[in-house]
Amino acid sequence: MRLVPRWSRHAAPDAVLDAAGAAGGPDRWLLRWAALHAPHDWSSLGRRASLAPGERNEMQLYDHPDCPYGMKVRIALAETECDYETVRVDLAAGQQHSAEFLKINPFGQVPVLIDDSLVLYDSTIINEYLNEWYASEPGLLPDLEHAPERARVRLLEDFADRAFTPAVMALEAEQAKPEGERNGERVSALIETIEKALPMLERVLSEQQFLGPNFSLADIAFAPAALRLERLGVDPGEAHKNVKDWLTRLAGRPSIMTVLEMAA
Ligand SMILES: N[C@@H](CCC(=O)N[C@@H](CS)C(=O)NCC(=O)O)C(=O)O
């Protein structure tokens, strides 16, 4: 019977969760439990933050320049006019799995944002914090009085993070390979996945200029991957004219322009 896989002291719990995902059935829950009990440091999660309203500190962003989730956070930092210094994490060298880094994100991933004593990881959680603590009206997420719109924006952000961005990044990685090593079937499958999102985006954007009633966390989540489409040869075409216009609006937004220039 297969039970808990072995992992090294500094292996990311993600590796365990991936194994859990592949396992399915009762093993899945056993492996999730195992991930929680991996020998990592969860202490940053329990730290109390004592930030005063309106107080602004210089924050630290642990990031990698090509990371689309890091870009999400950099766009939100620019939108909320927050000052920060970047600490570059060398992902290729595996710095994200070092004991030191796992103290600030036990899941071993960038981005991580440190605001005074508050240590946050995961781009969605970070951006909601930036919006709730630092954004001026109308903010980047519809208010609680508009709960259905708010939920729709959050759902679109989740779709960007879990389906759209990974497909675009995988396509970029595939296309970066020398032609002889590229997997043509995989390239076609990834383009098909990306193109499936276009009619849905077109429908939303036929009613409004952005994915929410105003520019929102959903637009921010899509921007890093969506603005790579042209370079990757994926054209929304005339059938998705509203998507094309939206991409132009995104590319011209100062917060996004700054982040794209940083990545170039
Ligand atoms: N759900 C996370 C995803 C972050 C993520 O996937 N980061 C990648 C870089 S783009 C990473 O750190 N990968 C290193 C690893 O998993 O070892 C977020 O939104 O912040």
Provide a short characterization of the protein structure.
This protein is of the alpha+beta class and 264 residues long. The chain has helices spanning 13-23, 25-36, 68-79, 99-102, 123-134, 147-175, 184-205, 217-226, 241-251, 254-263; strands spanning 59-63, 84-88, 112-115, 118-121. The chain is built from 10 helices and 4 strands.
Helix share bin: 40-55%
Largest sheet: 4 strands, mixed
Radius of gyration: 20 Å
* Helix and strand element order: HHEHEHEEHHHHHH
Distance between the termini: 50 Å
Q: What is the CATH topology descriptor of the largest domain?
A: Glutathione S-transferase Yfyf (Class Pi), Chain A, domain 2
Bound molecules: glutathione
In percent, how much strand structure appears in the residues?
5-15%
Structural class: alpha+beta
The whole-number mean of residue pLDDT values reads: 87
Number of helices: 10
Spatial shape: globular
Into how many domains do the coordinates divide?
3
Low-confidence stretches: 1-13
Q: Trace the largest sheet across and list its strands.
A: 2-1-3-4
Give the C-level CATH assignment of the largest domain.
Answer: Mainly Alpha
CATH architecture of the largest domain: Up-down Bundle
Beta strands, count: 4
